[in-house]
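Backbone-to-sequence.
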């Protein structure tokens, strides 16, 4: 499956979750429900995937965790905040760099329409 097909499927599942739950819940609730929907749709998903930092060829566990990693190529960072800001974007870009993934989805579920809370980010190699 191509990255665009994967992200389309992810967004469809996220819209389903948001339609059922609406805004105002904790990030953990959206993460669990989205994980359930993604697995149900047949995608391979890792939840809370540890992301080590490699510094001068030394692997360091600094506590970074990807909310959801789909098909080993799309990073999903889930938020439930008033507004997405630059630090959230920087977080996803860092996760893309460290994981060597190219595509990231930053999803803020605390919006009236989920399409207004999704940012697709690309890290070029």
């Amino acid at each position: 499956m191509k990255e665009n097909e994967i992200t389309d499927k992810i967004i469809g599942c996220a819209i389903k979750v948001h339609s059922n739950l609406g805004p105002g819940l904790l990030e953990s609730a959206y993460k669990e429900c989205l994980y359930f929907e993604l697995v149900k749709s047949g995608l391979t998903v890792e939840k809370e995937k540890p992301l080590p930092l490699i510094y001068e060829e030394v692997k360091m566990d600094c506590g970074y965790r990807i909310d959801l990693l789909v098909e080993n190529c799309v990073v999903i960072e889930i938020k439930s905040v008033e507004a997405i800001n630059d630090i959230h974007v920087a977080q996803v870009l860092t996760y893309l760099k460290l994981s060597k993934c190219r595509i990231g989805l930053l999803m803020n579920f605390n919006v009236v329409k989920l399409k207004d809370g999704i940012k697709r980010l690309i890290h070029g190699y």
